[in-house]
Specification:
InterPro entries: DUF6285. This protein is an all-alpha fold and 102 residues long. The protein contains 4 helices and no strands. It has 2 domains: 50 residues; 49 residues, no CATH class. Helix content is 65%, strand content 0%. Helix 1 packs antiparallel against helix 2.
Amino acid sequence: MDGEDPQAADLLATARDVLLNDLLPALPSDKAFAARMIANAMAIAARAAEATPGPDADLRALAADIRAGRCDPGSARHAETAALLDAITRARCAVSAPRALG
């Protein structure tokens, strides 16, 4: 893609800015919550478009291993699994709730 083409995150950020700064002030008060909810969804989508992928993991297999006790405290895989789950959680929070990270 050409470097001049708008990216999804940029388009979402511009649309969100118009929504919040131009449209929201003109909306009746009973529509303000819905507009802010849409703006929040747009911000999440923009962060998702720019996000680097989280750790590559077979989550179904990991869940099966956890249910089977193969990752319990004291097991050989416990520290590795805890670190992987932390990384997955941080990657997801970076998109959906970045303020929760810090």
